[in-house]
TrEMBL record:
SUPFAM superfamilies the record matches: Acyl-CoA dehydrogenase C-terminal domain-like, Acyl-CoA dehydrogenase NM domain-like
Domain named Acyl-CoA oxidase/dehydrogenase middle: residues: 138-228
Lineage, opening ranks: Bacteria, Bacillati, Actinomycetota, Actinomycetes, Micrococcales
Record domain Acyl-CoA dehydrogenase/oxidase N-terminal: where: 25-134
Protein name, entry field: Acyl-CoA dehydrogenase
InterPro entries: Acyl-CoA_Oxase/DH_mid-dom (IPR006091), Acyl-CoA_Oxase/DH_mid-dom_sf (IPR046373), AcylCo_DH-like_C (IPR036250), AcylCo_DH/oxidase_C (IPR009075), AcylCoA_DH/ox_N (IPR013786), AcylCoA_DH/ox_N_sf (IPR037069), AcylCoA_DH/oxidase_NM_dom_sf (IPR009100), Glutaryl-CoA_DH_mitochondrial (IPR052033)
């Protein structure tokens, strides 16, 4: 059974029955996302991944669904709950991590930065256009030498009269070659500050990174900033210090907690279906004890991961979320999703390495998801600091 033929209803729907513990509006968002992803992305994603093609023509359709900045209130955004947003991430990443990443870069990073830290004028100008997909944004934090250490920021912004002059470089920036604006974080005399930089500003250059073996159906870029000059009011006044970008990163990490479980579910579905079709020694491999043990163990970790995501989402909606829990969730979801993908591949046998099944694509994508928005090691140290009160970062 090819990827395009997998049923839209997950095998896990009946076994897990997640909807039994969701609210009607949450189920509505989840089903809207599933229908869109299965209808518009799944039939073409293997080909897009193979050809390194980002299907940007889907962006207006995604915007029509209300997914862009959906967790923000006002300014043309849907104002949905954190749990609803998480479910959209899960259903989108069940098809491909790159498309959940697109929704995250737009809503959790670029739009959230303006929403959290911008002026009313900035919000009213940019957010409605971004919610409609008319303007695309990117988030320029990571630098070539910095990686997990944004405090080692070399990009600078210098005040010159009524302007800011920005110089530096960023790397692994999603959507930068397509974006109309970039949220650029730079070191100033006052510490790290954020700026809204239109990408047509002279000196701003974005170049797509080629040679990727992961996230091939999406765009990640390098940015060069050579005396990029923006007006004084381009600064995000509410963001001072690294707490500014970290506030946005936590929004993106939250979406990953749900999204990685979507990739895990897709791999598990593929393994379950194939186990009933593939025969060895005269009977389906799903009838062997070892195969059923693998499926049971994968299901256990998937359900635990989704329940953890739901717990964190409920806390987020209630305003009681302990930020260390975001690290717990991101660490667990991606790590367990990768284990599920690898175990699912064993059930598929040699065919599991082909594009006939989605498992190797998800596995490759999850390696990127494991790295961005904080590596395993960073999140382990965040949790360790919360437990001991001692900082092991330096």
């Amino acid at each position: 059974m090819s990827t395009a033929e997998f049923p839209e209803v997950s095998v896990m729907d009946e076994v897990f029955d997640l909807h039994a513990i969701l609210q009607p509006d949450e189920i509505e968002w989840a089903m809207k996302a599933r229908t869109f992803a299965q209808t518009h992305i799944r039939p073409v994603i293997e080909d897009d991944f193979d050809k390194k093609y980002f299907r940007k023509e889907l962006i207006p359709l995604i915007a029509e669904q209300g997914f862009l900045g959906m967790h923000l209130k006002g300014y043309g955004c849907a104002g949905a709950s954190a749990v609803s947003y998480g479910l959209v991430c899960l259903e989108t990443e069940a098809v491909d991590s790159g498309w959940r990443t697109f929704i995250s870069v737009m809503g959790s990073l670029a739009m959230s930065a303006i929403y959290k830290y911008g002026t009313e004028e900035q919000k009213n100008y940019w957010l409605p256009q971004m919610a409609k997909g008319e303007k695309l944004g990117c988030f320029g934090l990571t630098e070539p030498q910095g990686g997990s250490d944004p405090a080692n920021m070399l990009t600078t912004a210098t005040r010159v009269g009524e302007t800011w002059v920005i110089n530096g470089a960023k790397r692994w920036i999603g959507l930068a070659t397509l974006a109309d604006l970039a949220i650029i974080w730079a070191m100033t005399d006052e510490g790290v500050r954020g700026f809204i930089v239109p990408t047509d500003t002279p000196g701003f250059t974005a170049t797509a990174i080629d040679g990727k073996l992961s996230m091939r159906a999406s765009i990640q870029c390098e940015i060069e900033l050579d005396n990029v000059t923006v007006p004084a009011d381009a600064i995000l006044p509410g963001a001072k210090g690294l707490s500014g970008p970290f506030g946005c990163l936590n929004e993106a990490r939250y979406g990953i907690i749900w999204g990685a479980m979507g990739a895990a579910r897709a791999c598990l579905d593929a393994a379950i279906i194939r186990s009933k079709e593939r025969e060895v020694f005269g009977k389906p491999i799903g009838s062997f004890q070892l195969t059923q043990a693998k499926l049971a163990d994968m299901t256990l970790e998937y359900e635990k991961g989704v329940l953890l995501a739901l717990h964190i989402g409920r806390q987020k909606d209630a305003g009681t979320l302990n930020l260390a829990q975001i690290s717990v969730g991101k660490l667990n979801s991606v790590r367990e999703a990768l284990k599920i993908a690898r175990e699912a591949r064993t059930i598929l046998g040699g065919d599991g390495i082909t594009g006939e099944f989605p498992v190797m694509r998800h596995m490759a994508n999850l390696e990127s998801v494991r790295t961005y928005e904080g590596t395993d090691e960073i999140h382990q140290l965040v949790v360790g600091r919360a437990l001991t009160g001692l900082n092991a970062f330096s």
